[in-house]
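User: Hey, my collaborator sent me this sequence without any context and asked if I could get a structure. I don't really work with proteins. Can you help?
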Amino acid sequence: MLSALTQRLEAQELIAALALAGLAPSVAAAQTPPTEAVAADPAVRTQAEALLPLLAGGPGYDSLFAPVFRQAVPLGQWTPLTKQLADTLGAPRRIASLTPRGRFAATVEVAYDRGTATMLIAVDPAPPHAITGLRITGTTRADDSAAALAKDLAALPGATRLGVYALAGATPKATLAIDDATPAPIGSAFKLWVLAEAARQVAAGRHRWDEVVPVGVPSLPSGILQGWPRGTPVTLQTLATLMIAISDNTATDTLIGVLGRREVDAMAARFGAAGPVLTTREAFAIKADPALTAAWTGADAPARRALLTAQAARIAGERIDAMMFSSGPVANDAVEWFAAPRDMARLLAHLRDAGPVVRAILAVNPGIDPTTAARFRYVGFKGGSEPGVIALNLLAETQDGRWYAVVGDWHRRDAAVDDAAFVALVTRALAQVTR
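Assistant: No problem. I've predicted the 3D structure and written it out in structure-token form, which is a compact way to encode the shape of the chain:
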């Protein structure tokens, strides 16, 4: 839901998630590889092969990488990163696959002794085709297990929850459950409640996906609609897609206004949540005011509804400081949205059955690296993050038609969480369902 400081997990950047706890979010982003469906120049494979000795700790850093890369990732950073990969996966052995992402870029899967690492690589079009960009987007460990996941999850400071659920019947069946009945802050993942209610009202004939409505009061980023003129006409499907794919807060608040707060509250209650469901602007405004935060924290549901009614004009017109989260967590244990993993799994199962439009919206941003996503027939995603909170919700269908939900969250009141480390754990959990 949150500001530009923390929205990286709310949008497409989440595909840069690593599967090694503690590894930096990107080895390099000096050049973002393009995605055109064209054949890769032979230089791309040549440079990928030349990368293997460096991944093994060998020499050649200065000659293989372009200055722009060396500036972004100095040798002093590169060396420990490659060592961590080797410590976890063993020695790099070969290029297992190379998928073009433009003439001078590709997704490369490197086979190690005990697993694989997937990387996005980009090379300079001009000879000698030095590597200008390299980003690790995922890893797999051949010896990974539920026990290893549980151990790594327990090592994280703060409170963590994780569940893996088979969606074969009416009730999700947990194949891994770690404190999955405990509600916790979920950040922008609450937008799945809004999507579910939008789908319900469309199915009931109250609204249409192609219905045009005006953009409402702007909220803070993440998103793009906060910069559009208020009242710009957009369809409900556009709002829903922006809400899920890039976690657009203004789209979310506009949708809640169209659907009705009571109706969204009722949908959230079906999946274990207590109302009232805050809009993102309301959450920002309450967090920004210590008196409102205290009043919200100490109130029951009717009192909270009364507070929102009394403060509606002020909240709609108030300027909210986008830097309010620059010092760390802000009331993330009180002014939030709360749900337990098992309830979020039920919600994902419900959304899977809510029709092709809903499934397509969830799949715009799959939330995981392309190589992991390619192992599945379908992947849908919605995450949420702010300082001290990360929540990840994945809906996946295996190639043989089995459906799973993977849901996890991590919460700290005292400090920020390591987003990349948690994404790594959840990606590992998802990868295990294909075995």
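In plain terms: The longest strand covers residues 131-141. You can pass these tokens on to your collaborator as they are.
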